[in-house]
Amino acid sequence: MVSTAESGDLTAARRLWILKDLPPYRPVARKLMTLTSAPEVPLARIQEVLRTDAAFSADVLRLANSPLIGTRGAVRSILHAVMMLGLERVKSLATTLALKSFLNSCAPTASIEVCWRHNLATAIVCEKLADSFEIDPDTCYTAGLLHDIGRLALLRTRSTAYENIFSSARGPDFDLLKSEIALFGVDHCQAGQWVLEQWEFPKELCEVASLHHTPPRPGASDLLRIVYAGWRIADLIGFSELKHPAGTEIAAIDSVLPGNISRRLIDECGLADEVAYKINAIECSLI
């Protein structure tokens, strides 16, 4: 019989094997994430870090000037972007670019594209949910963007094998996480936590990657509640990564949100059109 400790070691070994070919996270984006975790950061230091990768900085500026942001005037420099948009917004733009760069390092597939758009949709929905929790919307956007990093990592390293999961997903009884474990020895939540830990991301983002499929328990962080609701709303409005997603009841989502927020978002705000517009704005800016 395998002990709990030995089982944990085996799981860790499987992750190392499955994810061993992952490229590193974009160094400049990693430095920015680490730097901005400090309480106070001089703007000159932010500019200095971003200047180490001129191409990346140019992409950040292009995204900052896209319809996604909708600024009234042109953003002329990284320092100007930080002053006009705020540090968290610049960090969320940098994370978007770094994640896209991570995916661009492999051969493109339809599944990767669908999952990328699901992550973007979740990020945009989480940003909209932020006001009801009094959390910085850019922090919520970043958490939503990274929630499925484990799936993207598995697709990045084992795309052909993962296609078998997508092709077999049928009906409400389909269990995605069990299918991943059967195929890879780990599910994308475990893989996501491991990846973000290796990249030295903040603890709360590692928790989001690990627990976003689990209904939040009493005392769970508001960020985790937002991301759990965010990906499920993204599925409801047509941005699921599965062709035949399991049914999601709005009542189940609203149970973790105050004031029937999800119902209002979906019914009153033209949410699907807004999300599609913003995704297209991001993708046009990254061409």
**How many individual domains?**
2
Task: Indicate the CATH topology of the largest domain.
Answer: Hypothetical protein af1432
**Second CATH tier, the architecture of the largest domain:** Orthogonal Bundle
End-to-end span in angstroms? Answer: 53 Å
Shape: globular
Structural class, judged by helices and strands? mainly alpha
Q: In CATH, what is the class of the largest domain?
A: Mainly Alpha
What's the order of the H and E elements?
Answer: HHHHHHHHHHHHHHHHH
Structure described in brief:
The chain is mainly alpha-helical and 287 residues long. It is 67% helix and 0% strand.
Summary keywords:
17 helices; disordered N terminus; Hypothetical protein af1432; mainly alpha
Report on this model:
The chain is globular. With 287 residues, the chain is mostly helical. Residues 1-7 have low confidence and may be disordered. It has helices spanning 4-18, 27-35, 43-50, 54-64, 78-85, 87-104, 110-129, 137-146, 149-157, 159-168, 176-184, 188-198, 203-211, 222-239, 250-254, 261-268, 271-285. The chain has 2 domains: 24-104, no CATH class; 107-285, Hypothetical protein af1432, CATH 1.10.3210.
